[in-house]
Amino acid sequence: MSGGSGIVILGIFAADTAYTAKRMPHIAETLLGSDFKLGPGGKGSNQAIAAAKAGGKVTFISRIGNDPFGEMALSAYASAGVKANVMRMDGVSTGAAFIFVNEDNGDNAIIVAPGAAGLIGIEDVDANRAEIENAAIFMTQLEQPLDAATHALGIARRAGVTTVFNPAPAQTVPDEIYALCDYVVPNEVEVAHIVGHPVETDEQARAAGDILLQKGTGCAIITLGARGALYHAPGRSELIPAFSAGKVVDTTGAGDAFLGGFAAALSQGQEPAAAVRFGCATAAIAVTRPGTAPAMPLRSEIDDLLRLGS
Fold it and tell me: Does 1 reside within a domain?
């Protein structure tokens, strides 16, 4: 690890427009929903806010439009204590997401339009090279262009910064990217896309973890929803159970909450399996609340749940 203590995250902001209903409408059908919420979202942005609220020192790199959704982003970062290294663009909309939330069980389906963040490029990474090189943790995902993510992971790796890669949304990426990653953190759907087989049992998760290690990652962490998360490293494979913090209301931000909590704990020197447990507690609280970024818990709440669950 580098000598830094902060977390740098490259990713997108998207304004979340969340619609709650019994089911998704069919083509040419109009359904009445039971709720609507508007709030800050985007995987990288959610992870940055989650990490900051969990006690991390966080810098977020992105692009947003010069519009009301962009103002929402800046307000969210100011409130959470995230340093926003964010380029504002005229004539391009801020990213936005359509989120369907099932009113019976909180399950979700999402469409993301990255807007300005879809224009994130290598130049954005180079402009923030010093921040990345002096971080403890660098984390990114796949909502912004792949070349920017790969370039940033390479800079971080060469500087001795611990690298965390969330391969979401699921897409095919060159195997070379895995060798740049200390931790690859997919969910069951994303890892199934990577390895080419379903991940529905613990055995299948471990087999998927083996494939990620063979691709060159230092450690695979596979989030398994209500079952918890698999920490899978050379010589150690441990299923870390989920916590319960109350009724599940909305699972939309669960993975981002996990990653933010994990990065915060790791940046503060917790050993990796303990950081996974911290991430599980972070996610358990987030899913009891509606929305994504607004649902992220404070460090004190996470510590309280960890004490109850120990």
Answer: no
